[in-house]
Amino acid sequence: FPTDGFLRFTHTHNTGSAFGIFQDQNTPLILVSILGVGILIMIYRSQGVPSRLLRLSLGLQIGGALGNLLDRLRLGHVTDFMDVGTWPVFNVADAAIITGLVILAYIFLIAQPEDQDLSNMYSIKIINNSMWIKNKADENKMNYINSKKRNRKRI
Question: Hey, CA dihedral for 80, 88, 37, 121, is it positive or negative?
Answer without folding.
Answer: negative
